Amino acid sequence: MSISSINPVNGEIIKEYQEDHPETVNQKINQAHEAWQSYRETDFGYRAQFLLKIVDLLNERKNELAKLMSLEMGKPLKAGVAEVVKCASVCEYYAKNGATFLADQKVETDAGKSFISFQPIGVVLAIMPWNFPFWQVFRFLAPAIMAGNVGVLKHASGVMGCALAIEKIVEDAGFHSNVFKTLVSGSKAIAEVIAHPFVKAVTLTGSTEAGKKVAEQAGRLIKKTVLELGGSGPYIILADADLAAAAKTCAEARLINNGQSCIAAKRFIVVKEVEEEFTRYFKAAMAAKKTGNPLDNDTELGPMARVELRDELHEQVLKTIAQGATCILGGKIPAFGGHHAFYQPTILTNVKKGMLAYDEEIFGPVAAVISAKDADDAINIANDTPFGLGAAVFTQDLILAEDIARNKLQAGSCFVNEGVKSDPALPFGGINQSGYGRELGMFGIHEFVNIKTVYIK
Ligand code: NDP
Predict the structure, then answer these.
(1) With contact defined as beta carbons under 8 Å apart, do 233 and 391 qualify?
(2) Which residues are annotated as catalytic?
(3) If pLDDT is split at 50, 70 and 90, which confidence band does 34 have?
(4) Whose CA is nearest to atom 32 of ligand 1?
(5) Residue closest to 269 by CA, chosen among 361, 374, 366, 408
(6) What are the domain boundaries of the chain?
(7) What ipTM was estimated for this complex?
(8) pTM of the model
(9) Pocket perturbation via mutation, ligand 1, pick of 72, 152, 159, 207 by most ligand atoms within 8 A of CB
């Protein structure tokens, strides 16, 4: 069986990869486990020095890596470079802070001495998606290897070139060999990987469906999982918001990575009295984005990652319109010719409960505008979702905004007057159908360690 990378600009096959034989997969896991036997004994200074070498390599290779993303999943070059630089920043963050986060913690008890020690657990399997092919992997990888774990990666089938480039970076940084291995495998091969006795835990970023399957397999074997799944990011716009600024931020937040981001803004819940004015600014900001070949320097929006994902998105748009929504921008597959995955930025208004764009995640450049009677109604609508990843509120009343962000919105991250974004120092993850566990920050590095109690009489 082979795995293909396909250019979403024209449908051409970029490269085909021979899938690893099950024996090879086994061998890679065994080698990673073998590497862990000595790697776990290394100190934080040793691990940090290699993480900092990765920082240098990422910065040196950022242009070629960005080009690889453009070819394999359509990300514009500028955004690709920014993604690689962000990967360098998460490596630097854990190289600098990992030792502090994992230092022993003394606890006063009736013991002569008692403390908490954070011990590595071994091989962690990372199942990662195509939307941020480098960032999703490095935000797992940097804390995992700083904590003394080793990793095997099952990357999304369409970005195998990126997956192998990551393996090469870790190798070239001079880490112990086999500390990080890429499996050239489709998802069918992964149940066996999860079941391998040396695989101790699994982290998955992707769809809720994939998360359910993987968590079920791992759960049956009592293996820990961290799941970072979908979202239906509600953005509330209150009457006193700076509407022009809010609309600009909302358009950026909807169109990040061409809308293919778990934390992208998806539902815009606007109080009635400013809905018309906000929507006018919002439409102008969405329409201003330049779509084109991701390899052109001035392109802001490339194609979506795959033709079938674009087709599914278009179906969702058509169904929502049939359910009574109004399309005020886009809603069409552009007539560029050829087998491309482009989609126009689209705005649907009059979106209501029971319509597809209200109830489901929309993973592409399509915004749903929902009308709310007042702030309380807006909060209720925001929370009326099975997801709970990111949420935002726009208002000039910062006291009210903080209360809404802290106490009212049910999500893993709540932002005020800003689009939801990840930062190496801030924990990232969701609640409900958006998953569980946290990546990044101090909490992220504590997910895959044995939090060990040591009691000395
Ligand atoms: P998937 O969730 O299917 O893919 C994500 C990763 O999970 C890939 O590596 C995939 O491998 C793997 N995977 C899928 N099913 C299994 C399984 N049963 N066992 C092991 N691994 C598995 O996403 P899609 O690419 O199909 O995109 C579909 C939708 O998922 C999007 O429209 C979006 O809604 C959501 N999504 C959310 C993301 C997020 O950031 N939260 C990221 C990507 C998608 P393979 O590629 O080989 O199938």
Answers:
(1) yes
(2) 228, 262
(3) very high
(4) 363
(5) 374
(6) 2-229+431-456, 234-416
(7) 0.96
(8) 0.97
(9) 207
